[in-house]
Amino acid sequence: MNNKLELSENLHEEIKEYCSRGDVLAEARQFKEAIGAYNGAWKLIPEPKNHWEAATWVLAAIADAAFLGGFLKSAREAIEYAMTCPGSIGNPFMHLRFGQILLDLGERDRAADELMRAYMGAGAEIFERDDPKYLAFLKTRATL
Protein backbone atom coordinates (compact mmCIF):
# COMPACT_ATOMS: atom_id res chain seq x y z
CA MET A 1 0.00 0.00 0.00
CA ASN A 2 1.36 3.41 -0.95
CA ASN A 3 0.79 6.01 1.77
CA LYS A 4 2.76 8.70 -0.06
CA LEU A 5 0.78 11.91 -0.36
CA GLU A 6 1.10 13.91 -3.53
CA LEU A 7 0.29 17.57 -4.03
CA SER A 8 -1.75 18.72 -6.99
CA GLU A 9 0.42 19.72 -9.93
CA ASN A 10 -0.61 23.39 -9.64
CA LEU A 11 0.17 23.54 -5.92
CA HIS A 12 3.48 21.75 -6.45
CA GLU A 13 4.46 24.25 -9.16
CA GLU A 14 3.50 27.21 -6.95
CA ILE A 15 5.62 25.85 -4.09
CA LYS A 16 8.56 25.32 -6.48
CA GLU A 17 8.24 28.92 -7.74
CA TYR A 18 8.55 30.31 -4.19
CA CYS A 19 11.52 28.02 -3.57
CA SER A 20 13.22 29.06 -6.81
CA ARG A 21 12.90 32.70 -5.74
CA GLY A 22 14.33 31.75 -2.35
CA ASP A 23 17.23 29.91 -3.99
CA VAL A 24 18.13 32.96 -6.10
CA LEU A 25 18.04 35.18 -3.01
CA ALA A 26 20.07 32.71 -0.94
CA GLU A 27 22.64 32.46 -3.72
CA ALA A 28 22.92 36.27 -3.53
CA ARG A 29 23.43 35.90 0.25
CA GLN A 30 20.15 37.73 0.92
CA PHE A 31 19.19 35.19 3.54
CA LYS A 32 16.39 37.10 5.29
CA GLU A 33 14.65 37.65 1.96
CA ALA A 34 15.26 34.03 0.96
CA ILE A 35 13.61 32.84 4.16
CA GLY A 36 10.63 35.05 3.31
CA ALA A 37 10.29 33.38 -0.10
CA TYR A 38 10.62 29.90 1.42
CA ASN A 39 8.01 30.82 4.02
CA GLY A 40 5.66 31.61 1.12
CA ALA A 41 6.11 28.02 -0.05
CA TRP A 42 5.68 26.71 3.51
CA LYS A 43 2.31 28.43 3.89
CA LEU A 44 1.00 26.59 0.81
CA ILE A 45 1.69 23.10 2.19
CA PRO A 46 -1.53 21.55 3.54
CA GLU A 47 -1.96 20.40 7.14
CA PRO A 48 -0.63 18.25 8.63
CA LYS A 49 2.44 19.74 7.03
CA ASN A 50 4.86 17.06 8.20
CA HIS A 51 3.03 14.43 6.15
CA TRP A 52 4.24 15.95 2.87
CA GLU A 53 7.62 15.45 1.19
CA ALA A 54 7.47 19.07 0.06
CA ALA A 55 7.66 20.08 3.73
CA THR A 56 11.01 18.30 3.99
CA TRP A 57 12.71 20.27 1.23
CA VAL A 58 11.03 23.58 2.08
CA LEU A 59 12.10 23.31 5.72
CA ALA A 60 15.59 22.21 4.66
CA ALA A 61 15.84 25.37 2.54
CA ILE A 62 14.58 27.54 5.43
CA ALA A 63 17.02 25.93 7.87
CA ASP A 64 19.89 26.28 5.41
CA ALA A 65 19.21 29.98 4.71
CA ALA A 66 18.70 30.68 8.42
CA PHE A 67 21.93 28.88 9.31
CA LEU A 68 23.94 30.66 6.62
CA GLY A 69 22.38 33.98 7.66
CA GLY A 70 23.28 33.43 11.31
CA PHE A 71 19.68 33.05 12.51
CA LEU A 72 20.42 29.99 14.61
CA LYS A 73 17.18 29.91 16.61
CA SER A 74 15.10 29.95 13.42
CA ALA A 75 17.43 27.42 11.79
CA ARG A 76 17.02 25.07 14.72
CA GLU A 77 13.22 25.37 14.75
CA ALA A 78 13.06 24.63 11.02
CA ILE A 79 15.47 21.69 11.08
CA GLU A 80 13.88 20.10 14.14
CA TYR A 81 10.46 20.16 12.50
CA ALA A 82 11.99 19.01 9.21
CA MET A 83 13.30 15.92 10.97
CA THR A 84 9.66 14.85 11.52
CA CYS A 85 8.95 15.00 7.77
CA PRO A 86 9.29 12.23 5.15
CA GLY A 87 12.83 11.43 4.04
CA SER A 88 14.67 13.53 6.63
CA ILE A 89 16.08 10.83 8.87
CA GLY A 90 19.08 9.41 7.09
CA ASN A 91 19.48 12.39 4.75
CA PRO A 92 23.16 13.35 5.15
CA PHE A 93 22.59 17.05 4.38
CA MET A 94 19.82 17.31 6.97
CA HIS A 95 22.01 15.68 9.62
CA LEU A 96 24.95 17.91 8.65
CA ARG A 97 22.95 21.12 9.03
CA PHE A 98 21.33 19.93 12.25
CA GLY A 99 24.73 19.06 13.70
CA GLN A 100 26.24 22.37 12.65
CA ILE A 101 23.35 24.31 14.16
CA LEU A 102 23.58 22.35 17.41
CA LEU A 103 27.35 22.82 17.62
CA ASP A 104 27.02 26.56 17.06
CA LEU A 105 24.40 26.62 19.84
CA GLY A 106 26.82 24.81 22.18
CA GLU A 107 25.04 21.44 22.25
CA ARG A 108 28.18 19.44 21.62
CA ASP A 109 26.92 15.91 22.36
CA ARG A 110 23.85 16.13 20.14
CA ALA A 111 25.94 17.92 17.51
CA ALA A 112 28.45 15.07 17.47
CA ASP A 113 25.64 12.55 16.95
CA GLU A 114 24.13 14.47 14.02
CA LEU A 115 27.50 15.21 12.42
CA MET A 116 28.43 11.52 12.67
CA ARG A 117 25.17 10.61 10.90
CA ALA A 118 26.11 13.02 8.10
CA TYR A 119 29.62 11.57 7.92
CA MET A 120 28.34 7.99 7.87
CA GLY A 121 25.87 8.84 5.10
CA ALA A 122 28.14 10.86 2.81
CA GLY A 123 31.72 10.75 4.07
CA ALA A 124 34.07 13.67 4.66
CA GLU A 125 33.08 15.21 1.30
CA ILE A 126 29.82 16.53 2.74
CA PHE A 127 31.83 18.79 5.05
CA GLU A 128 33.98 20.32 2.28
CA ARG A 129 31.76 23.31 1.44
CA ASP A 130 31.50 24.49 5.05
CA ASP A 131 33.78 25.79 7.76
CA PRO A 132 36.39 23.12 8.58
CA LYS A 133 35.59 23.53 12.29
CA TYR A 134 32.68 21.05 12.00
CA LEU A 135 34.76 18.16 10.69
CA ALA A 136 37.57 19.09 13.09
CA PHE A 137 35.09 18.92 15.98
CA LEU A 138 33.82 15.52 14.82
CA LYS A 139 37.41 14.25 14.73
CA THR A 140 37.68 15.10 18.44
CA ARG A 141 34.73 12.77 19.10
CA ALA A 142 35.42 9.88 16.73
CA THR A 143 38.19 8.18 14.80
CA LEU A 144 37.36 8.88 11.17
Structure characteristics:
single chain, mainly alpha, 2 domains, globular, 144 residues
Structure write-up:
This protein is mostly helical and 144 residues long. It folds into two domains: 8-71; 90-144, no CATH class. Helices cover 68% and strands 0% of the residues. It is built from seven helices and no strands. The chain has helices at 9-27, 31-44, 53-69, 72-82, 92-104, 108-122, 133-141. The chain is globular and about 50 Å long. The relative contact order is 0.10. The mean pLDDT is 96.
pLDDT < 50 runs, ≥5 residues: none
Q: Over all CA atoms, what is the radius of gyration? A: 16 Å
Overall shape: it is: globular
How many domains is the backbone divided into? 2
Helix content: 55-70%
Number of helices: 7
Report how far apart the termini are: 40 Å
Multimer state: single chain
Draw up the topology in text.
Blueprint: H1 9-27, H2 31-44, H3 53-69, H4 72-82, H5 92-104, H6 108-122, H7 133-141
Helix pairs in contact: 1-2, 1-3, 2-3, 3-4, 3-5, 4-5, 5-6
